[in-house]
């Protein structure tokens, strides 16, 4: 992995590359950060303040009522994916800043992204399973 250019390097002195991943990562962090603030606060408001507040939160509310509406399912999926990618990209930046040897740095970054992908897949499985069959466990209804 190449060293990251000094941020204030004049354009005329910068290396020309077809894809500037660091710039894309920087832009993603700013955009996803703003989106995450909005997603989190609406998520907290809808779960903790609206309706009966925190007293309404139980399995029935989250799975049978909230996830019955596709809008909230997509909202929570977007929150999950953006938060995990945002956090992983932040950790990648820290690894790039403090791990100087290329081998360990590549191994750590690969581990971060693998963990991110596994967590996204597991989180999406949970969301999809609860959206498809929210109230049945072993053939018995648990929502009634």
From TrEMBL:
It comes from the Bacteria. Pfam families: Sdh_cyt (PF01127). The chain crosses the membrane at residues 24-45, 67-86, 107-132. Keywords: Heme, Iron, Membrane, Metal-binding, Transmembrane, Transmembrane helix. One of its GO terms (cellular component) is membrane. InterPro entries: SQR/QFR_C/D, SuccDH_FuR_B_TM-su. One of its GO terms (molecular function) is metal ion binding. It is found in: Membrane. This is Succinate dehydrogenase hydrophobic membrane anchor subunit. The lineage of its organism: Bacteria, Bacillati, Actinomycetota, Actinomycetes, Micrococcales.
């Amino acid at each position: 992995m190449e060293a990251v250019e000094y941020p204030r390097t004049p354009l005329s002195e910068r290396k020309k590359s077809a894809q500037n991943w660091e710039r894309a990562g920087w832009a993603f962090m700013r955009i996803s950060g703003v989106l995450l603030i909005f997603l989190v606060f609406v998520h907290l408001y809808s779960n903790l303040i609206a309706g009966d507040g925190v007293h309404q939160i139980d399995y029935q509310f989250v799975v049978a009522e909230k996830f019955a509406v596709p809008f909230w399912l997509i909202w929570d999926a977007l929150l999950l994916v953006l938060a995990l990618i945002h956090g992983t990209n932040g950790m990648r930046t820290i690894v790039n800043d403090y791990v100087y040897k290329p081998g360990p740095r590549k191994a750590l970054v690969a581990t971060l992204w693998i963990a991110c992908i596994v967590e996204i897949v597991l989180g999406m499985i949970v969301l999809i399973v609860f959206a498809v069959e929210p109230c049945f466990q072993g053939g018995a209804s648990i929502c009634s």
